[in-house]
Amino acid sequence: AHLVESGGGLVQFGGSLRLSCTASEFAFPIYTMNWYRQAPGKEREFVAKIPALIGDIEYSDSVKGRCSISRNDTEMAVYLEMNNLKFEDTGVYYCEAAGPYNFEDYWGQGIQVTVSS
Predict the structure, then answer these.
(1) In terms of Cα–Cα distance, which of 29, 39, 9 is closest to 111?
(2) Radius of gyration for the chain, computed over Cα atoms and rounded to the nearest angstrom
């Protein structure tokens, strides 16, 4: 199984960014997809979740109202649209595929997002 993040980079304060995570070699439609991030010197933290098939989308309080997560099961991809970016959004962003039942979870390698002035 593979997860590959893309779309990161350097963005100005208040700007926008769209992260993508493309999946392969596992049953993507039945996996809940999550975005996490890790800022320098900090623990990895949850950002957003989009369930498989049915369920509620969730966001962390730190990004609620500024981010939108979506998925395309045909293309086996999950996206994170980020708006009004703040300095504290800087970090490495990871996508995770959380399997149902006792299925194995998968992680991408992460992608850097840096918000600058």
Answers:
(1) 9
(2) 14
Which residue do the tokens 């992608």 mark? 111
Show the tokens assigned to 51: 């369930």
- Mean pLDDT computed over 45-62: 95
63-108: pLDDT as tens digits: 999 999 999 999 999 999 999 999 999 999 999 999 988 889 999 9
**pLDDT value at residue 114:** 98
**Average pLDDT for the chain:** 96
Residue 98 and residue 31 in contact, taking contact as beta carbons nearer than 8 Å: yes
Q: Are strands 58-59 and 44-50 parallel, antiparallel or unpaired?
A: antiparallel
**Which of these, 101, 67, 95, lies nearest to 81 by C-alpha position?**
67
Query: Smallest Cα–Cα separation from 96: which of 86, 106, 88, 82?
Result: 106
